[in-house]
């Protein structure tokens, strides 16, 4: 239920008195003055307002009547209505005979301000409730029928398949537009989007999977508009809330993987890095030591980084010798010599499928240095 408060009452007073030469008072549903051109009267009772509240009609007070009432000056007191409900009183000080011609216009303006403020409050509540609902839906227990039903009633369409994007923005104050602005931009341009911000520099955006989107172009546009986007992790289509929660966990891991392993890459897709990310989640477990051991043997003898660069290119070109040699700017014989050297040092043959897979996964868990960074995927 909407009620007048001090801020709204004083706003009505200030706007009205900017036009009228008369003092204006706004009283609540109990006759207490909430806003006034005479600050000393705020929080005092107004007997004229109580008469309006008791009778539900306009009350005019002339000079003789004002002397008989407490805290009242001559003027007109009009009921303030919202949705046909009496919520307060508008009082204009002065000779009633001179005020009648425009008192109703002043009341109409005041009621319009009340309605506008109510709409703003409703919109703010709705935004906050939607944010709370989305956080609950994406958390444990998010399949609760009550939550899902409320989400439907709020127009959130929880049944849609969605693709999660996890944005990480820069920490520097003033370096770009903030997370709230990014959320508003995305939701205004992509209908039925969900946006949830868990931190000042992080935004989860879940767009409908039915939308066609060019991710590199979107990222380029956002950066061009001023957002300091460090990186964005993109998942795959997720059916249902449980699928979306799983995909959200995957893109969270993907973003952290990109931060540690591919610091120069802004755009990371789960399709491209799904397997390395799965292994990266277990990076501190002993089981991965065996996988990384052959690559470490190569690195120990690779003083200038030539063998590592060759191995990265070999993996990047799916073991295609000519494409790899061309990318490195070397002859195929030179490439064959390097691959033989890698096999000798690692004890793993990169020309065999199992050897190539083993070295490929190890390379994906090795942080890229500036000299060997690839372009963003």
Automatic annotation (TrEMBL):
It comes from the Bacteria. Residues 143-250 form the CdaR GGDEF-like domain. Residues 307-364 form the PucR C-terminal helix-turn-helix domain. Residues 4-134 form the Putative sugar diacid recognition domain. InterPro entries: CdaR-like_regulators, CdaR_GGDEF, Diacid_rec, PucR_C-HTH_dom, PucR_C-HTH_sf. Belongs to the CdaR family. This is Sugar diacid recognition domain-containing protein. The lineage of its organism: Bacteria, Pseudomonadati, Pseudomonadota, Gammaproteobacteria, Pseudomonadales.
């Amino acid at each position: 239920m909407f009620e007048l408060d001090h801020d709204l009452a004083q706003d009505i007073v200030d706007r009205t008195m900017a036009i009228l030469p008369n003092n204006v008072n706004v009283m609540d549903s109990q006759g207490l003055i909430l806003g006034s051109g005479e600050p000393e009267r705020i929080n005092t009772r107004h007997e004229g307002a109580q008469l309006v509240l008791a009778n539900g009609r306009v009350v005019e007070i002339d000079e003789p009547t004002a002397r008989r009432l407490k805290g009242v000056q001559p003027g007109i007191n009009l009921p303030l209505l919202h949705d046909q409900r009496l919520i307060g009183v508008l009082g204009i000080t002065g000779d009633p005979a001179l005020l009648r011609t425009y008192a109703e216009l002043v009341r109409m303006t005041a009621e319009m301000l009340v309605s506008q403020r109510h709409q703003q409050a409703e919109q703010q509540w709705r935004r906050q409730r939607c944010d709370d609902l989305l956080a609950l839906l994406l958390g444990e227990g998010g399949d609760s029928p009550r939550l899902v039903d409320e989400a439907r009633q709020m127009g959130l369409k929880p049944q849609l398949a969605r693709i999660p994007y996890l944005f990480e923005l820069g920490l520097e104050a003033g370096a770009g537009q903030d997370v709230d602005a990014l959320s508003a931009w995305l939701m205004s341009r992509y209908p039925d989007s969900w946006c949830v911000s868990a931190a000042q520099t992080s935004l989860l955006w879940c767009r409908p999977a039915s939308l066609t989107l060019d991710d590199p172009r979107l990222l380029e546009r956002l950066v061009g508009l001023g957002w300091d986007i460090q990186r964005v992790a993109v998942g795959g289509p997720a059916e249902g809330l449980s699928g979306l929660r799983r995909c959200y966990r995957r893109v969270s891991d993907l973003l952290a993987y990109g931060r540690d392993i591919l610091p120069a890459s802004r755009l990371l897709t789960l399709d491209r890095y799904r397997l390395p990310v799965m292994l990266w989640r277990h990076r501190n477990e002993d089981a991965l030591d065996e996988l990384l051991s052959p690559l470490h043997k190569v690195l120990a003898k690779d003083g200038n980084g030539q063998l590592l660069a060759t191995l990265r290119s070999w993996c990047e070109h799916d073991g295609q010798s000519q494409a790899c040699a061309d990318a490195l700017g070397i002859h195929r014989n030179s490439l064959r010599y390097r691959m033989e050297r890698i096999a000798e040092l690692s004890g793993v043959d990169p020309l065999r499928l199992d050897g190539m897979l083993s070295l490929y996964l190890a390379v994906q868990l090795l942080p890229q240095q500036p000299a060997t960074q690839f372009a963003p995927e």
